[in-house]
Structures are given as C-alpha cells and as structure tokens.
Amino acid sequence: MTPPSPFDPIIKSWIIRGSLLALTVLAALLLTVLASDATQLEYLKLALDAAKLVVVGFLIAYLGILVPSGFSEARNRFEKLKAARIAFSRAKTGVDYLSLRLAVVSLEEASKLIQQLHVWKHRAELYPEEVSKFLDQRKESMSPKQWADLMYEQLHAVRDALERNADVWRTMSLRERIAELRSAQEAGIRIWKQDNPTLVSQPAAAPR
C-alpha cells in the first residue's frame, strides 16, 4: 500500500477552499444583480474580502505542511550523509592501517577486526551517491563499486594470509607479521588493478 503523501492534506484543503471561494463569488454576484445600485459596491467588497480570506487560509495551510516537510527532508539527508561518512571512513582508514593494526594483536582479534572492516565496507556500499562524492573529494578516479572491490581484495588477501600462518602466528616476530601482511595486502591491490586497468588514477601499495 502506498503511504499517504504529505501534500494530500494540501490538495484536500485546496479543493475545499476553492469550492468555498467559488460559492462566495457566485453568492456575491447573485446579490449584486438583485441588489440596488447603492448596495452593489458593498457586496463586491464583501466578495473580495471573502476571497482574500480563503486564499490566505490556503497559503497558511500549505506552509504549515511544506515547512515541516522540508525540515524533515533536510534532517534525513544529513543523517544519511553522516552514516555514509562514518562507514566510508572506518572502512577506508581500517584498510589503510590494516597491516599495522593486525600485527600487534592475536589471531582471534585479527580475525574479528577483518570481519568488522567487512561490515563497514558493506555499510558504505549502501550509500553509493555519498561514497562517490567522498571519492571525488579525495581525487580518487574510481566508482563506488570499484572502491568496494579494492577494499574487498585487500581484506580477502589478508584473511588468507592469516589462515596460512595460523599455526605460527603466535611465534612470528612483529617484523615478520608486518612483512607478511603487507605482502598480502599488496597482492590484493595487484589483483584489483588487473581487473581495473583503465583507471586514470590507481592507488599506491599499502602504506609503509
């Protein structure tokens, strides 16, 4: 069932007030015809005043619905932009510093962190228009889908690296962990570049 439009009351009010205006004018014209010359002008003034009241009432009713509706729409746009920026920033920043963050935590915590970044990436994908604007602001020549694919390839490659080193993760040194994670992340970027060879601007390797 289609939800009622906020402008439905305006349309109904317009019909009612328009009908009242028409009846008022017709009644004034009838009285003018039947009245004497001395009272015709008074009836015409009465009709004009009534018409003004009807029009003013309609404008007040229109603004009474339009203004709150405009505020509500602006608030919804702001909340949507806010949610999109949070999801985009957490996904992007998390991936940018992925190797450093994972290198200092346990295998269990590392897997949870990758899962959380996957969730933020999926949330950001819910706002393609906003993500496109964020990418333009950063002068990134890619679409929201290409950006999401880039995040996925890196997360997927790093997850595979953790699985390969699950048995020795606890004994690996910090330097070995960082090297392994960066290598995996760069491998994910290379895969993404192979799938997007025509991009004007391609991202550099994972931050060192």
Written overview of the protein:
- The structure is a single chain.
- By secondary structure, the chain is an all-alpha fold.
- The chain folds into 2 domains: 68 residues; 99 residues, no CATH class.
- The two termini are 55 Å apart.
- The C terminus is likely disordered.
Structural topology:
Elements: H1 8-34, H2 37-96, H3 98-103, H4 107-124, H5 128-137, H6 144-164, H7 174-195
Helix pairs in contact: 1-2, 2-4, 4-6, 6-7
Question: Count the strands?
Answer: 0
Q: Radius of gyration from the CA trace?
A: 33 Å
Structural class of the helices, strands and pairings? Answer: mainly alpha
Give the topology string: H per helix, E per strand. Answer: HHHHHHH
| Strand residue percentage | under 5%
Separate helix tally: 7
Uncertain segments of ≥5 residues (pLDDT<50)?
Answer: 200-208
Please, what is the oligomeric state? single chain
Terminal Cα span: 55 Å
Q: Helical content, roughly?
A: over 70%
What does the average pLDDT come to? 80
User: Number of folding domains?
Assistant: 2
Shape: rod-shaped
